[in-house]
Amino acid sequence: MSNSNSSDAMVALFAGGASIFFIIFMIVYSVVLIGICTLLIVSLWKIFVKAGKPGWACLIPGYNFWVMSEIACNNNIMFFIFIFIPFLNFVALIAFIAGICRTFGKGVGFTILSVFFYLVTFPILAFGKSQYDPSKKLG
């Protein structure tokens, strides 16, 4: 009888500890996720402003891609439509990233780095010394 009670107590203790761990994990995860999203939004806002576009445009889904196409690709409607087609959206996103890097005077190496690590490179574009040059747009 006492053996059953001690095993029930161990299960309850483990469940309580696991619950506390999960709650702490979710709080830390949420704080990190909010921080990353905030960094990306602020960086895109600053990039849009540097390119002469309204910063708030980065907050509007769909419209932000239209503005990116204006910044990167001379308003190429094809890449804008590709954003909404599965699998082709990767091509369009890479084109937008390449065009943005190019118009801010960055080379191929920075562009490749941006495709995989945009959370590092977009703040560099936004808060660095690079200037927007519309004559270097793609297409």
Mean pLDDT rating:
88
- When the domains are counted, the total is 1
Ends: how far apart? 79 Å
Percent range for β-strand residues? under 5%
Uncertain residue segments: none
Helical coverage, percent range: over 70%
**Whole-angstrom Rg:** 23 Å
Class computed from helices, strands and strand pairing: mainly alpha
H/I helix tally: 6
Shape: elongated
Order of helices and strands: HHHHHH
SSE layout and pairing:
Blueprint: H1 2-50, H2 63-72, H3 77-82, H4 88-103, H5 108-116, H6 118-127
Quick take:
The chain is mainly α and 139 residues long. Helices cover 72% and strands 0% of the residues. It contains 6 helices and no strands.
How would you explain this protein's 3D organization?
The protein has 139 residues and is an all-alpha fold. The chain has one domain. It has six helices and no strands. It has helices at residues 2-50, 63-72, 77-82, 88-103, 108-116, 118-127. Helix 2 packs across helix 4, helix 4 crosses helix 5 and helix 5 packs across helix 6. The radius of gyration is 23 Å and the shape is elongated.
